[in-house]
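Because discrete structure vocabularies remain unfamiliar, it helps to consider an illustrative case, giving the amino acid sequence and backbone structure tokens:
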Amino acid sequence: MRLLIIVNSFASSVTARNKVLIRQALRRDHDVAIVETNRRGHATRFAQDAAARGMDVVVALGGDGTLNEVANGLVGSATALAVLPGGSTNVFARTIALPNDPVPAAQMLGRALAAGSIAPVGLGQVNGRYFTFHTGIGFDAAVVASVERRASLKRWAGHPLFVWAALSTWLRGYDRRHPHFRLHLPDGSELADGYFTIVLNTSPYTYLGDRALDLSRAATLERPLVAITFRTMRATVILGTLARALRGGGVETGPLVDCRTDLSQLVVEHDTPFPYQVDGDHLGDTKRLQFRHVPAAVRLVLPASSA
């Protein structure tokens, strides 16, 4: 097979040594080329060019943001998407049961390619941008924006930086008194008091170290989207919900937390702009988000354990 590896060398787990080891592991059986990104959007253009040239597989080596860009470049093409973990969290790679180390993950990828373990999977789409595992709206996105303002620390601080950003945003960086958006659901109902929504294409939502935050087992690559909406910013509600998620219990609908599953579409809007992030990349503020689920959007290389 002809493989193109798209590398984000600024990602926290990418080193010169593991780039060499990954290429050696894959070039034994495949024709392998490597390109490196140097700005946002670069990976999408590399992936689009690879698909246009008929490459068999494009491998994203970087964090979840790099993966998102590569996936957006391959949607609708015959070129398959493969993932190698190179970031600080690597949510999607771990979701499909890859080890959180790019070198053994490359060895597993080689075995999956030899076995022809490639399958079409669904993606979410928001305002024309595809996402592999989630979109965060409101508080979640404000936290990501805070982390990105300190991007130079992200490679070294990792999870402690996210914890600090969450605490500082909750204390003084986010309005906890007034709802930030409305959700219009496919059945015609409306939630008028959204403070924080996570739209899931897969679960877990993220990881804290080795612990998965499993918000909904209904969020899989085979099913439509799941939306979890917090209708309050009370610390007891948010922390209680996250504690249940850490135990693998998922989220249950109640008066202050709303859970909707199997959503083929969803609209989120407000008269005042609100922040959102896609697969861990903050994309700014908007007054309207339009979601839809796209079945069989990309062909994904899956390790045998999750195929």
Remarks:
- Residues 2-116 form a domain with the Rossmann fold fold (CATH 3.40.50.10330).
